[in-house]
Design brief:
It comes from Rosa chinensis. Strand 2 and strand 3 form a beta hairpin. The protein folds into two domains: 82 residues, no CATH class; 100 residues, no CATH class. The strands form two sheets. Strands 1-4 form a two-stranded antiparallel ribbon. With 234 residues, it is mainly alpha-helical. Helix content is 42%, strand content 5%.
Length: 234
């Protein structure tokens, strides 16, 4: 009977994240036998990185333990003269009285142990805040309207174009104008002649005009600027 082994999807995800986890960890020095003096992160940044000599990393194999004698720092005299600021950082690290194993700790928690929320915040992709986000997610706007605006800006409405993208075969034509344009969020709410009449009417209420072309972000920012100017009495 042959045993079957299945690849773990969890382990694959962990392997992908290991470099990111390591970048946000640092070594707590015990006896220094597990830590590369030059390339590992045991100060605020790796020494080679601070010296801008990262390319030399494969050639330098000295361990931190090579610079410790009787649990006291023992740096070469030349190191003090060449890199006094780094030597000072090293001497600011208090070594344990009894030699013990080095420990890799997480930098973003007081315990040195990462939590699930730490990992999530680190790994998740963070995008720049959209210029329109504050204006649509506002306490005086009913949530259903805010959600509708969000779906428009992110093209999440079930328009004809979205249905086509998901494999639905259909002939798309905007029902509000005679231009024969494909129905998508941008056309339906902004560039369609019917929508343009509504937006221009709103602009006239503020005694100005709106751009007829441009991105959704640009169009909405222009409209919000008009509203702000009106409220300020400009």
């Amino acid at each position: 009977m042959r045993l079957k082994f299945f690849t773990s999807s969890i382990w694959h995800g962990l392997k992908v994240s290991l470099p990111l986890i390591y970048q946000n960890s640092r070594w707590l020095i015990g006896n220094g036998s597990m830590v590369n003096f030059w390339s590992d992160k045991w100060l605020d940044v790796p020494i080679l990185e601070e010296l801008q000599r990262v390319s030399l990393s494969p050639q330098l194999h000295a361990l931190v333990s090579d610079f410790i004698a009787n649990q006291q720092w023992s740096l070469p005299a030349r190191f003090y003269s060449l890199y006094p600021h780094i030597a000072q950082k090293i001497h600011n690290i208090t070594l344990p009285l009894q030699a013990e194993s080095d420990c890799l700790i997480w930098e973003h928690s007081s315990s040195g142990v990462p939590s699930f929320s730490d990992g999530y915040e680190l790994v998740r992709q963070k995008s720049n805040k959209k210029s329109w986000a504050t204006s649509i997610w506002n306490s005086f706007i009913p949530p259903r309207y805010s959600l509708l605006a969000w779906r428009i800006f992110y093209d999440r409405l079930p328009t004809d174009l979205q249905l086509q993208r998901h494999g639905v075969t259909l002939v798309s034509k905007c029902p509000l104008c005679s231009l024969g344009c494909v129905e998508d969020s941008v056309h339906l709410f902004f560039s369609c002649s019917f929508a343009q009449h509504i937006w221009q009417w709103l602009a006239c209420c503020f005694g100005t005009s709106l751009p007829s072309q441009g991105s959704l972000d640009y169009f909405w920012t222009a409209f919000i600027d008009l509203e702000g100017a009106e409220q300020a009495g400009l």
